[in-house]
Amino acid sequence: MLAHVRRAPDTPEPAVHTAALGRSSAGAVAAQATYALSSFVLQFAAARLLGLDGLGRYGALYAFLVLTTAVSGGFVGDSLTVLDRQDRSIRAGLQISLIFIAAATSLTLGAVTWSIGFVSAATAASYAVATAAFTVEDALRRNLMAVFSFWRVVIVDVVGLVASVAVLVLMAAAADRVTLTHLMLALFAGQMCALAVAAGLLPVEERVLASFKGADLRSVARFGTWRALQQVVRPTLLAGVRILCLLTSSVAAVGALEAARVYTAPAMLVVGGINSYLFASYARTKSAPLGGVLHRADRTVATLVAITAAVGIAAVAALPILGPVLSGGDYDLSIVAVASWSLFVASIAAVTPFGQLASVRGNQRRVLSIRVADSVVTLIAVVIALALGLAVMWVPLILAIGSIAGGMTIRIMVLAPAAGHANE
């Protein structure tokens, strides 16, 4: 068992569940909507202002930004949700981990993207500082979620969005054209404003900075390492797939695939945000019987899949109208890519709650091994498909199939047996 694991509240589990479905759940939905909007705006700006080549580069940079956030979110964000962050040694361990991850990843990404000639020095520098700010802001955002202050998260997201848009508009007015550097600086400005607001909105007891002396890095690493590894599996897979597509196709083709992803991004971000809420909920009801929680997870998955499927169908149907809004009429969005990405979103909705529930119940290693296995198989399938001449627009469909396979394996081989043993 992990040391310093946060106790579940003494309130009976059904009451906790009822409360979670009340004001907090409404706030969670609102928070995911604002998060989706704030992330979508800059992606929309990239699609409209940078062209397919610029959008392809932005998509690659953003993929590694998401990967960085996944590392921090798993190692720090999930640890502060599950472990006892009021313990000074745990809090110090979380602080050190966040500082190290933010500094190491931002400097590495900036240096690598510049040294290989993928972006200019100015873009690399702005990308590095934006990555650091994004990482720290995400940790504070996760802290607010951990205490179920979802409506405060909404405020944080709105402030960040307004600041990013304001800075981008000012730079666009002062420059001849908007560049990738401008977008990264706008992202940095928005994240810094959101970070400051998030720090101010945290409850007083959550704003304590612990001395680094006596930091319990071992407890944080014991839980956070497995969660971080699990969290980076999908972003790593997506980053690897982007690289494969760039190697086998043109940057413009990858840009077209990215444009279709941006088109479906709001649904993807909302699903991801709802899953963040579910993780906090599963952590709070950790002592509840697994069988009952698993049944509710099944119903949650069914609901999410139905919603994302309906949204996907609507997205495809509305493509002739909304597609030109995104592209500005400069290029057409692929209906195959949009449909494939929509299926991928539905697969995320179908499988992530099972992985989260299994991890909260102490099965991080088994979840990780299953996720790595399905990702490796999926990556091999993508390599074979591209080598056989399959168009890159079909790649998200392969990702969706692999995701579903991994999630159902967790449900059948990890959660179901554990629930059965608990009932014996």
Write structural notes for this entry.
The longest helix is centred in the N-terminal third of the chain and has 37 residues, at 13-49. This protein has 13 helices and no strands. It has one domain (13-423). Helix 1 (13-49) runs parallel beside helix 5 (150-174) and helix 2 (51-82) packs parallel to helix 4. The chain is mainly α and 424 residues long.
**What's the rounded overall pLDDT mean?**
83
User: What is the end-to-end distance?
Assistant: 21 Å
E-strand count? 0
| Domains (count) | 1
Q: Any low-confidence stretches, pLDDT <50, length ≥5?
A: 7-21
> What would the principal axes of the Cα set say about the shape?
globular
- Helix count equals 13
Strand content: under 5%
Helix-strand pattern:
HHHHHHHHHHHHH
What helical percentage do the residues reach? over 70%
* Class based on secondary structure composition and strand pairing: mainly alpha
* Structural Rg: 21 Å
The largest pleated sheet is described as: none
